[in-house]
Amino acid sequence: MKTRGAIVRGVGLGWEVVDLELGEPNDHEVLIEVHASGLCHSDQHITDGDLAVELPFVGGHEGAGIVRKVGSGVTRVKVGDHVCTSFIPGCGVCKYCARGQSYVCQNGYLMEKGVSMDGTPRFFLDGEPLGAQCRLGTFSGHLVCSEQQAIKIDDDIPLEVACLVSCGVATGFGAAVNVGEVKPGDVVVIMGMGGVGVNAVQGAAKAGASHVIVVDPLEGKRARAAEFGATATFATLEEAMPLVHEHTDYQGADVTIITVGRVDGDIIGEAFSSIGKTGCCVLCSLGQSTPGIAINPQDLQTMSKSLKGVMFGNCNPAKDIPMLLKMYKDGKLKLDELVTNRYALEDINKGFDDLVSGVNLRGVLVHDHAAVAA
Fold it and tell me: Is 302 helix (H, G, I), strand (E, B) or coil?
């Protein structure tokens, strides 16, 4: 079938809206009519060259839509189901899934190539195959993916907010709750108040942290932090540390979570130095794959500190996406408030400009299927 979506042809070139051809779903695959896609910094890393993929490439991974067709053998969803896309598949049987770690399911292998699990493409441009972000491509109005990446959700949840749980919400919330293991009374520092950081704030607050301190250079983002559970905000970590010391008897934070737009070794080192004995530094952010993190090995060992990476908030998509959406329906998790601006497909570059400049907590790309049909 024909569909329309946004691709990147080269580093630094931004997104180009084109007409695409989409293959049929094979065994255990589904065709999804995508209604909304969050504009996530992970896709910006492709245009910046931080994430190496085979270009040209279809963007987007944080999506929600409706299942329109299923291949043979599909059992997890049916035609008409509303779904969130999971950028990590969950087979349920590999050693990682079997021990409750489907966020690193073995079927995530070679996802950077963007082709189906059987090694063949689903997107084509002028007859030439294209890969898609996380084997999805939610910047396209339609996509084909494994049923392992389609998580059924309730039909009454607006797809424009449901899409956010597919990445940013789960990653940030899980970074605090699952990885940082924030406990009642903890002092937590969150570096970066973007689409992931704001949800780390929500997670830390829900976990009972006594102080949730946000560090972000942008005044507009700091101004909204309290709305999501922050107790204090600062432009720099240096400015925040006196308050951290005041609340910890000069020991340092219990948990510091790095959610800046683009990370490097110096930022990680600064965050690591902010935690105290047995403290945990949690890294959510991406950056260039250059070696070197400025941390003191003796500090790591003698103070029993930890530095942890995060994938999808160490959530299990099939369980945690519905759980987070239930929290939303119960009024216990803010999603509507995350959406700063909505963009048409043709305005996708404006959306990413707003992301980079810090205008948005989260921008959402909304596919207009009525206009396409007309």
Answer: helix
Q: Which of 74-78, 236-240, 370-374 has the lowest mean pLDDT?
A: 370-374
Arithmetic mean of pLDDT, 213-232: 97
Q: Are residues 257 and 196 in contact, defined by beta-carbon separation less than 8 angstroms?
A: no
CA distances from residue 84 to 12, 157, 186 in whole angstroms, order as listed: 29, 11, 32
Q: For every residue of 138-205, which 3-state class applies, written as one string? A: CCECEEEEEHHHEEEECCCCCHHHHHHHHCHHHHHHHHHHHHCCCCCCCEEEEECCCCCHHHHHHHHH
Give pTM, 2 decimals: 0.94
Element (DSSP H or E) covering residue 298: helix 297-302
Q: What is the CA radius of gyration of the chain?
A: 20
C-beta of residue 272 within 8 angstroms of C-beta of residue 307: yes
Question: Rounded distance, CA 308 to CA 179, Å?
Answer: 7
Distance CA(202)–CA(226), nearest Å, equals: 10
The answer to whether residues 86 and 321 touch, using CB atoms and an 8 Å cutoff, is: yes
Residue carrying structure tokens 């204090």:
232
Evaluate whether 308 touches 293 at the Cβ level (below 8 Å). Answer: no
Residue at token pair 């997890």:
76
Q: Flag whether pLDDT at 374 surpasses 60.
A: no
pLDDT band at 180 (very low <50, low <70, confident <90, very high): very high
Give the pLDDT of residue 249.
96
Contact 359, 343 (CB under 8 A): no
Helix (H) or strand (E) holding 313: none
Pair of tokens at residue 364: 């959402």
CB neighbourhood size of 189 (10 A):
29
**What is the pLDDT at residue 53?**
87
Q: 318: Cβ–Cβ under 8 A, 6 or more apart, which residues? A: 86, 90, 92, 102, 151
Structure tokens at 78: 């049916």
Tell me whether strands 253-258 and 362-366 are parallel, antiparallel or unpaired.
unpaired
